Structures are given as structure tokens and as C-alpha cells.
Amino acid sequence: MVAHESSNIILGIDPGTLLMGYGIICLRGKNLHLMEMGTLTLKGTPDSYEKLRKIHEKITALIEIHHPQSFAIEAPFYGKNVQSMLKLGRAQGVAIAAAMQARLKVCEYAPKKIKQAVTGNGNASKEQIWRMLERMLHFGEKPRYFDATDAVAVAVCHYFQQKHPDLGVRDNRKGWADFILEHPERIA
After folding, report:
1. From the CB of residue 150, how many other CB atoms can be counted at a distance below 10 Å?
2. Are the beta carbons of 49 and 60 closer than 8 angstroms?
3. pLDDT digits (tens, 9 = 90+) for 134-186
4. Could you tell me the fold of the domain covering 7-186?
5. Alpha carbon of 166 to those of 1, 87, 139, 180: distances in Å?
6. Radius of gyration of the chain (CA)
7. Taking the domains of the chain in order of start, what are their residue ranges?
8. Strands, E, within 79-119: which ranges?
9. Are 10 and 105 in contact (CB under 8 A)?
10. Catalytic positions, please?
11. Is 104 within 8 Å of 13 (Cβ atoms)?
12. pTM of the predicted model, to two decimals?
């Protein structure tokens, strides 16, 4: 597809070392459309460097085919397994490098922010995200892996963030201690 001047194409990525989800959405006029979604399956690739090469190739191919104006990726969440975090960080880094090589601005979103933007609930399940996207973008069948719809959710989150930059921006309070300092009259 060739991008039109009136369209805004966003590539969203849900990084992973076993499955990488990708979703491409397009805004034409006031209507949001799903262009493509899917997963890159890396489960059968035992070599970690080969996985990284495949991720780079897939991102590069998606960029060459769809010519996105924006690239959005889910930020890694912090887990207990350090090795898993390292592998996920590498996968994310390679995806970001492919986008930057194509001169795309990279935007990262936390998992909770993505869920909040799409469903209104920062703790939404993958099933809830899929159902909301299904209604929003009018695609019929359930994907084989929710990594694909998670990637579409990243792109949709980025769209909403572009449309309403102040959406979801919270004040700079660090917690209850700051609230109490700012509102001593509320302490009994």
C-alpha cells in the first residue's frame, strides 16, 4: 500500500523472543482502519542471534511495505527472571534499531497505559483488549495469538496519544506523602 497524504499509518509492536506481535493501523480522514496484524513466530529458532536477525528483517519489511509515519512499541515490564528481561530487551532494541534505521520516531508505552488507552482499564485481560479492538476496528476473527492484538493495541494507544497528548498524564506526586504535604487540612 502506498501512503496517502491524508493518512497516518502507525506500526505497533509487542516485542518478544518467542512471538513478536505486530499491528499496522491507518487513519484515513476520521476513520481508523486495521491494515495488517500478525505474529512473527520464533519458537523454532534456537539461536538467540538468529531470532534477533529475524526480528530486524520483519520490522524492516513491514516498514518497506506499509510506509508508516509512526512506530510504537510496548516497553518491557519488570519481571523476576533477569535472563528473560535481558532477552526481551534485546528483542525490543533490535525492533527499535530497525525503526530508527528507517528514520521513524520511536515511542514506548507501558503495558498498563496501553490497556488503559484501549479498554479504559489498566488491568484489562488480553481477551478484553481483543474484544475492544474488534469493536473499534471491525475485524472478525480471533487471532491465533493475542500478541497480534496486543501490537494493534500499542498502535491504537499511540494514535490516542497523538490525538490527545495530555491524555493519561498524571501529576508529579510521588504518593500519599506528597498528597498529605499538599493537603494538610485533610488530615484528622
Report:
1. 29
2. no
3. 999 988 788 889 999 999 999 999 999 987 765 553 333 344 555 455 555 55
4. Nucleotidyltransferase; domain 5 (3.30.420)
5. 32, 33, 29, 25
6. 18
7. 7-186
8. 106-109
9. no
10. 14, 74, 147
11. no
12. 0.83
